[in-house]
Amino acid sequence: MAASMCDVFSFCVGVAGGARGSVEVRFVSSAKGKGLFATQLIRKGETIFIERPLVASQFLWNALYRYRACDHCLRALEKAEENAQRLTGKPGQVLPHPELCSVRKDLHQNCPRCQVTYCSAECRLAAAEQYHQILCPGPSQDDPRHPLNKLQEAWRSVHYPPETASIMLMARMVATVKQAKDKDHWVRLFSHFCSKTANEEEEIVHKLLGDKFKWFTPDGFRSLFALVGTNGQGIGTSSLSQWVHACDALELKPQEREQLDTFIDQLYKDIEAATGEFLNCEGSGLFVLQSCCNHSCVPNAETSFPENNFLLHVTALEDIEPGEEICISYLDCCQRERSRHSRHKILRENYLFVCSCPKCLAEADDPNVTSEEEEEEDEEEGEPEDAELGDEMTDV
After folding, report:
1. Which of 90, 187, 302, 387 has a Cα-to-Cα distance from 232 of 20 to 30 A?
2. pLDDT tens digits for 87-96?
3. Which residue stretches does the UniProt record annotate as biased composition, category Acidic residues (predicted)?
4. Contact assessment for residue 369 and residue 214, using Cβ atoms and an 8 Å cutoff
């Protein structure tokens, strides 16, 4: 049974103007499924809704490489200065205005049995009530022979960075249902997501079900695997980016502003030299309302995580009229600038559909240029130094 709209909105923790009055979910077509539509005028820059996920999990390599995040909400646990020291590889790195760091270490708590860390008592209790009682390894947290650790190691052995999913998201889904008193409630919520393993009209096989994963043979797990692959929303948190945003908001004299901006620019360069593109605590989650937002290569809304945790904000990129569909992009900025052929290739492999947005329709007669040819072009032309790094640093 599909999740009711009451189920959907009960997980939307805050909505500008009120969720029930500003957006609604409608059936679009058999190919696209559901869509999210505005029921009143939404102005450019307005927060359309804020949503917490049904379940979320940090990526496994990300956690292994000491990107410390709350085990429940993915809030970054390092102080901004500690974060800068690790990312630059400079133990003596000092940040100005340390008072702008939002991390509260005095609130952090550990699970008393397995010692995983949470940002607060609220997150520790929320995890325990939803799934952690089933998954807690207790004193075997660091024992490589524990079944959960063996599962995670098997996953890491075939999923190298950059990561797009985690086996622990599926484990938490299963544990949530198993631990719940009202199991039907959670089954209804999870059934809200599309669970087909392939698009029957296009006969596209999901790349996550390739040769490496033939041992996932039960149909139920295959569906679960595809559900996460096609509906999982990436989550990025960073105490350092929070500090940068706070610095941007400071009222400073022109000379002080120039000095601070120069310092931050150099910090970006140092991080790029030491760490590359892996700046944030990263994971993924399943969001009921966000999953209703269809893709467009020219989106009128975007997602972000400005609260340094798993709370997803969807913001209007332009005025959205009543009755207009709210669309986000499943592609990043660089991917959206690629050819129609390359965009379609990424979307087919990852999300099992062929895009027919206005941009794709306008480029229907363009020549088919492969991703490899575009990548060679990109390498020859190059990109502005630090541009992409700066965006990723501040836009989580």
Report:
1. 387
2. 999 999 999 9
3. 363-396
4. no
